[in-house]
Design a protein that fits this description.
mainly alpha, Transposase InsH N-terminal domain-containing protein
Length: about 45
């Protein structure tokens, strides 16, 4: 989760929770980090 958040900040500066969810669904870099598990925006919120 932390790796996804850091990668999103490096790429675009700021990423909302829903944007993080979309990145994990469609971006291959994020899918590789999460091992093809797509966390919901609520999972990022709890983290």
């Amino acid at each position: 989760m932390l790796a996804c958040i850091i990668l999103a900040f490096v790429n675009g500066g700021y990423a909302s929770l829903r944007e993080l969810e979309e990145l994990c669904k469609y971006d291959l870099r994020f899918r590789a980090i999460t091992n093809n598990v797509v966390p919901s925006y609520k999972a990022f919120e709890r983290f």
